[in-house]
Amino acid sequence: MKKTGLINKILDKLQEVSKEGASQAEPTDNELIERFVRSNDDKAFELIVRRYMEKIYNLAYRITRDHYKAEDVLQEVYMTLIKKLHTFRGESKFSSWLYRVTANASYMMLRTEKKYDNDLSLDDYVPYDDKGTLMGRMHHKDWSSRPDIVIYVKEALEILEKAVDELPEVYRVVFYLRDIEGLTNEEVSEVLEITVPAVKSRIHRSRLYIRDKVSDYFYEWKKIG
């Protein structure tokens, strides 16, 4: 993921903090929060930022699809943490709370700029039959017959990244949280404030779309090869 100068400068600064405490066991999120809230411990706050900065940035980028806007969201979340970290009650995982803050800041930026989702709709996207088999010419796609597939991993990953980026925002953010960050359906539901069935539906359609796009790449590759 591309990062601009601000991100690299912050990372360099936080690496110094990391080296200072390298010999000590990493404190938990709740311990760091308590230290910051009770005694305004700057090092505790810096550790929280170091631990989650890249995740915040990546989620913001997945929603805004703009590196500079993702930086703006990162700064907004940074200020929100300073002002509102004391409101975290520990009723959910801190990471879930932080993802929700990040998602809200990202959506607010898009609303302010009146920049909405692309026109792609996955509501009726069903390239597979009831048994999960690709329909039409798609059923000819067979990856197992190419033992040299590893040669094309880099290009395939680029195709995968492009397919994820093409997803409508409401699907893209669910896919990112569920399949990249590894949150459970329930945690994604909490972060985005949608129902668990909605999470399952969106992740299912996202996976179908991405699998279809990646399959298209290998189908074309097989024809050439």
Uncertain regions: pLDDT < 50 for 5+ in a row?
Answer: 125-144
The H-level CATH homologous superfamily of the largest domain, spelled out, is: RNA polymerase sigma factor, region 2, helix turn helix motif
Decide which structural class fits the backbone. Answer: mainly alpha
Topology, number of strands = 0
Q: Which CATH top level class of the largest domain fits?
A: Mainly Alpha
Query: How does the overall form come out from the CA principal axes?
Result: globular
Count structural domains.
2
Residue share in helices?
Answer: 55-70%
Order of helices and strands: HHHHHHHHH
Could you say what the CATH architecture of the largest domain is?
A: Orthogonal Bundle
What do we call the CATH topology of the largest domain?
Rna Polymerase Sigma Factor, Chain: A
Strand content: under 5%
Q: First CA to last CA: what distance?
A: 31 Å
| Computed Rg | 20 Å
In DSSP terms (H or I, runs of 4 or more residues), the helix count works out at: 9
Average pLDDT score: 78
- Major sheet: size, sense and barrel closure? none
Structure description:
Helix 2 crosses helix 3, helix 7 (169-180) crosses helix 9 and helix 8 packs across helix 9. It contains nine helices and no strands. By secondary structure, it is mainly alpha-helical. The protein has helices at 5-20, 29-39, 42-64, 67-84, 94-112, 153-166, 169-180, 185-192, 196-224. Mean pLDDT is 78; it is low at 125-144. It has two domains: 5-112, RNA polymerase sigma factor, region 2, helix turn helix motif (Rna Polymerase Sigma Factor, Chain: A), CATH 1.10.1740; 136-224, Orthogonal Bundle (Arc Repressor Mutant, subunit A). The two termini are 31 Å apart. The longest helix is centred in the C-terminal third of the chain and has 29 residues, at 196-224.
